[in-house]
Every structure is written in C-alpha cells, then in structure tokens.
Amino acid sequence: MRTIILSVLMATSVLQCSTSEAKEFHFTYTVGRDKLQYKTDATDWHEAFDRGGVFCYNFFVKREKNLTEDRGLEIIDACANPR
Description:
Blueprint: H1 2-18, E1 23-31, E2 34-42, H2 45-63, H3 69-80
Antiparallel strand pairs: 1-2
Helix pairs in contact: 2-3
C-alpha cells in the first residue's frame, strides 16, 4: 500500500512540474552605447533572469579584444541590472 501511495505522489509531482507553462520574458542590457535586447521563454522570472545574464555577459565579452578590469566590471554591472 505504501508503494502505491508513493508512486502516485511521485507521478503527481512529475505532472505538476511538466505542466508549468513557459512565459516570454524580455530584457534590455546597455553597456556604454551598445544595447542588447534579449528574449527568452522560461517557467519563471528567475530562470529567465539567469539565462539573460549569462547570455549578456558572453555576448559583450566576446566583442572585446582587450578586456580591462574596468570594462569587465562595467559588463558585469550591466548584465546584472537589465532595464
């Protein structure tokens, strides 16, 4: 009996996780005069925020030929604070 209840509880939790609908989130990042607009689908704001921050950082770092400490901090600040 305990096995059946545990199986039903596990199946219910799996269904609840899979039925979470993804929403569309938009973020705008500005570093100096450069602007990046990022759009993603995620189940919640925190997941979208994390994805956007990583994308922003990678995008702006790849464009730099000589990344200084100050420029790196500017990129981190911009990617952590989308508009």
